[in-house]
Amino acid sequence: MSDAALRPGATVSLEARALRGGLLLAFAVLLAGLVLPLGTLLLRAFQDAQGSFVGLSNFAEYATTPSLRQAAWNSVWTAALTTMLVVPLAFGFAYALTRSCIPAKGFFRAVMLLPVLAPSLLPALALIYLFGNQGMLRDLLFGNSIYGPIGIVVAQVFYCFPHAALILVVALSTADARLYEAATVLRAGHFRIFGTVTLPLARYGLVSASVVVFTLVVTDFGIPKVIGGQFPVLATDVYKQVVGLQNFNMGAVVGLVLLLPALLAFAADRWANRQRSGLISGRAVPYVPQPRRARDLPLLGLCVLVAVALVGLVAVAGWGSLVTFWPYNLSLTLRNYDFDQFDTAGWSALWNSVRIAAAAAICGTALIFTTAWLLERGTPGSALASAVRFIAGVPLAVPGLVLGLAFILFFNHPSNPLGFLYGTLAILVLNGVVHFYTVMHLTAVTAIRQLDPEFESVGASLKVPAVVTFRRVTVPICLPAILDIAVYAFVNVMTTVSAVIFLYGPDTKPASVAVVHMDEAGQSSAAAAMAVTILAITASVKLLQLATGGLVARATQGWRQR
Amino acid sequence: MSAQLAVAPAAATATTAPPYLVVEQVSKHFGTTIALERASLTVAAGEFVCFLGPSGCGKTTLLRAIAGLDPATSGRILQDGRDITFLPPAARDFGIVFQSYALFPNLSVTENVGYGLRGKAWPAPRRSHRVAELLELVGLSEHARKYPAQLSGGQQQRVALIRALAAEPGLLLLDEPLSALDAQVRLHLRQELRALQRRLGVTTVMVTHDQEEAMGVSDRIVVMSRGHIEQIGTPETIYRHPASAFVAGFVGHASQFAAKVDATPGSLAVDGLTLPCLGARRMLYGTPVQAFIRPEDVALGPSASALEGHFAARVMHQEFLGPICRVTLQVGRLQLEADVNPAVAPAIGEVLLAALPAERLMVFPRDV
Which residues in chain B have their CB less than 8 angstroms from residue A560's CB? Predict the structure, then answer.
């Protein structure tokens, strides 16, 4: 080979090396933040407190402890009940948004997302205000206590509603109008069309929604912690074993048990998604609903009821946080927002949370989007790429509590060189990025796959390095998706409790954990105030995204206009 | 026909200069599937070559191997004497236009065309001058500031073309560049493409599944099927002297039927008829063959009676196609299509004399 042939080859391999380096970085992050911690968790479940291998004896102990078995059963039945309540409700709501002519769809869509922006503790606190020992409406429970399964299920319905509704809106909005025309021409009635066209098309969406809700409930920690009372569930058991009893090995066992439904759900969801992808052909004609009172009025009623419940619970929490002494002195005060009075961390907890969430949003988005691009376009086909692609899908199946537990077991290990991270903000940021990795990754992949697959080829033929094409073409086109990813990361890291409850240090306590602590200490007004403040921050960020979305679109998306 | 004009210079350069592009025994495997099996061909400098074949025949695979987008599994590719088989695309010297055009939607026409004109060799004034010149060349100067989505399909195609040509590559690769356009625009653009290619003298390889398009623009056509090269030749050679039954059936229109070589040298037996056939002269008696005849070659009426082996046929069907009328004839179990002048088209049901000229009947041994 001549020199002329060698030289360009050398510069190109430099570029290839840089791309590979980027992928290696992502691999390292996922290795340190997911694979190794989970591996440690797995090992610890088979060890005793001294670290020697004890086989399945931890599991045997678990299976023979009645209180632990009871907790597992409690988790399963509350999750199943919540799923049965949420999915039909969310289906009706999603159906109203996509298949009817009700007014104010934009408003209902915004209200639907409200619970996503709040920590899961917020509905639980609001329910305590209403139905708790000093609740205003406690007589409505006819002597039953809100502390326990009733409170858990009601709060979970609130918390899980948007997740189910979002999935069902997507499932219902991809309808093919031609099928409805065909059914109408064949003289099928409204109910027959609903049963033979609408439901079959939405069935995988229903499977996905049910699976997601079930997993969310089983793995959520905040709600049972606040409103569960003496009712044990898996998630609170892990906390008790680790924080209360310092029994890390039994904690690891419960964590693995917790991983089980999540893994099953993950597999079921994958299956449902695969089935669904074949249903809609590329030439589908979008369905446009026509007004029909008999359908629209009841649906509007349902939407109003749901909206009142969602907004109402948030409003109650907000009101409760402003009340002097619930329910005896209802005069308004800002005293509950003086967090320094109630918790050692005080306002600095909020500041911690904002810093963690912002860092996770910025670093996480940069890392995840670049990695997704490398996997799709930069260096496809290598073994490393396959490994990263596989690991990127795993976090979705790992509950936050399990990830948090895996983190302490791994980073707290005396011989771990990364141990210095423990108790810093960095570990909370890493945890946040890894915890929500999959959804961000999938959003990025979806955005990148919409680009012409030949962009990089054209760039290469014009001798433009792939990195330049990434900067000049890929990123500007995908900017709306990138913003979505960043806001998603910010909101979720800001509101999560379960993953960080084990990980904060004395100076790095996040706001969501402060809510738990203040509630534990009986300062429920201050806890509600903190939860409302978190909601205010996430809602402002979301509104900021909507507001700047227009500006960003005008600056970078002008080419979309014809 | 344009091809006849171009054959001469291509043939002349082949004797004096080495070919510009040499593909030697190139194979491409995807796992266990073989997309391309030992393809060999040469392209002379300034030549316009088409890879023609049905989808899945390996034509795009071969183009992508030449571009380095999916490097060949084995074999050798030389461009201008340099071995490029395993070079990455960026180290090669070519421009490419994809079926989708792959125009960057967020960049204006000017930015798209100037995308590859970067680095020290292209300071801003030189770049803008070159872009303006190219836009002028294809008549898009007034659209310079628009985005791709604001252009028509034909305009987008031209932008993609001049973007590929901007840095004056030695080789232009076109991957079905016209197939996303309407029939009318397509015909017009194909002539424009050919004229531009001649003017610039750039060696060009185009992939297409449209045989009319291939015939219209190419100096030579490479007909491919199932990962193999079936034939390489000028459009006329491919049409008149197909090398295989596949080429005869794929290129142009032809009626085909199964026959056997008859006892008399140079004749075929089919369904009780004996047809003289020059192509069967060197075949053994009894060899099963597949025979092809183009509709315009079938002689009818008085001109048929002058030919040996004429027969009576009944008109079963007719189809008016504008300049000609295509009639379907039935002789026993044999069905043939023939082109006639619409003014003297026979009526359905009419029986008339027909003959297949011996030198026009194309025959290929059949695998049994």
Answer: 105, 149
Can you give the residue range of the structural domain that contains A508?
Answer: 2-560
Split at pLDDT 50, 70, 90, the class of B16 is low
Tokens of A452: 């012409």
Report the DSSP pairing between strands B311-320 and B325-331.
Answer: antiparallel
Q: What is residue B3's predicted lDDT score, i.e. its pLDDT?
A: 39
Q: Would the CB atoms of B67 and A457 count as touching at under 8 Å? A: yes
The whole-angstrom separation of Cα A158 and Cα A166 is 14
Cα–Cα nearest to A245, from A65, A398, A420, A43: A65
Q: What does the angle CA A320 – CA A324 – CA A329 come to, to the nearest 5 degrees? A: 100
Q: Using a CB–CB cutoff of 8 Å, tell me whether A479 touches chain B.
A: no
Rounded average pLDDT over A518-529: 87
**Three-class SS state of B292:** strand
Give which of B100, B106, B122 to mutate to test A binding, by max A Cβ within 10 Å.
B106
Model confidence at A74, pLDDT cuts 50, 70, 90, reads very high
pLDDT digits 0-9 by tens, A250-275: 888 888 888 887 788 778 877 777 76
Q: In this structure, what token pair is assigned to residue A269?
A: 């969801």
Q: B10, B77, B67: which is closest to B40 by C-alpha?
A: B77
Q: Is the pLDDT of residue A3 over 50?
A: no
Strand runs (DSSP E) across A392-518, as ranges?
none
Distance CA B364, CA B310 (A): 22
Nearest to B251 by CA among B213, B284, B287, B277: B213
How many domains does chain A contain in total? Answer: 1
Which of A8, A468, A473 is the closest to B107 by Cβ?
A473
CATH at A92: 1.10.3720.10
Mutate to test the interface with B, among A2, A379, A458, A478 (most CBs of B within 10 A): A458
**Spatial contact of B260 and B270, defined as CB atoms under 8 Å apart:** yes
> Residues 82 to 121 of B: which have CB under 8 A from any A CB?
82-84, 87-92, 94-96, 98, 100, 102, 104-108, 115-116, 118
Q: Is the ipTM of this complex over 0.95?
A: no
